[in-house]
């Protein structure tokens, strides 16, 4: 994004920012206004302007390669409204907010298969939603286009699709719920952590908890459906990853580990949790060597792993902003790329989960 565009956006933002304190007079110098503010005494509204990295309090200094457009110690209402203005967190917020909307849509869609009331509602809403889904699906491929066509179906057709004697769906909904929690807490963290040190600490911990939850719940559909006929492995793998998740969240609750300089340690904890999935994955491939859907699921899960690992590499290296500090403040910095890759990874995993469910629906378990 060009410097000029950024300036235009900033001035557009100034119009949205709260009006100066009353009685400031017109056209006077900033010093005079500030003095009057102080003389007015009491808790006056804080000035909401975008500041540079060097003006930030220490707890907000996280990425020295992003030089400008920071919101610092803004009142909560202004922080909420900044959802609709440009600053260096705008794209970070919207990437995960839109990701949340996509997963929410998928959840409603799948719930419609089991609850006639939800299916009814989908029937009423199907036209506008399916129009949007049609546009989106051309980009995300046939996974979502399948979803769009399901949305167009009548409640009766949806009920007919719902497998009667099919395998249970709760592990799949656990994944969808966890993904929504992760994406929403991340969006809230990026939107509101500029308010105060206390809220910042709380939201950062919530964000880490969201990531740990996302990793744990991602294990549920594959482990549950692959090992459905051998429940002891379900118990072994799902309890191991849940215990690892609880341990990770516990470790990350320490304010020390939330500090910027422990970025690599935190990432390592999450990568370790994710990569532990290699053990059940190798086990699953060995057990299902002759399963015709093996390669499709491996391709989806490979795409997921690649997305998450590439995203983590961007998060850790802070490329490209470290090459050109200040040039990617608003658009194109590493955290935005990381967010986009998280969504891509989660969608690939969703696609894999659909294949696992379909396979188990068809095969069942030998009596
Ligand atoms: Zn983030």
Order of helix and strand elements from N to C terminus: HHEEHHHHHHHHHHHH
- Tally of DSSP β-strands: 2
The overall number of domains is 2
- The assigned structural class equals mainly alpha
Give every kind of bound small molecule, once each. Answer: zinc ion
- Number of DSSP helices? 14
Instruction: Give the terminus-to-terminus CA distance.
Output: 61 Å
| Low-pLDDT windows of residues | 1-44, 136-141, 143-164
State mean pLDDT (0 to 100 scale): 82
Which strand order does the major sheet show?
A: 1-2
Major sheet attributes: 2 strands, antiparallel
Percentage of β-strand residues: under 5%
**Dominant shape:** globular
Radius of gyration: 24 Å
Roughly how much helix do the residues carry, as a percent range? 55-70%
Itemize the secondary structure elements and their pairings:
Elements: H1 3-16, H2 30-40, E1 50-51, E2 70-71, H3 76-81, H4 90-111, H5 116-140, H6 142-152, H7 155-161, H8 170-192, H9 197-226, H10 231-252, H11 263-275, H12 278-287, H13 294-317, H14 334-363
Antiparallel strand pairs: 1-2
Helix pairs in contact: 4-8, 4-14, 5-6, 5-7, 8-9, 8-14, 9-10, 9-14, 10-11, 11-13, 13-14
Bound molecules: zinc ion.
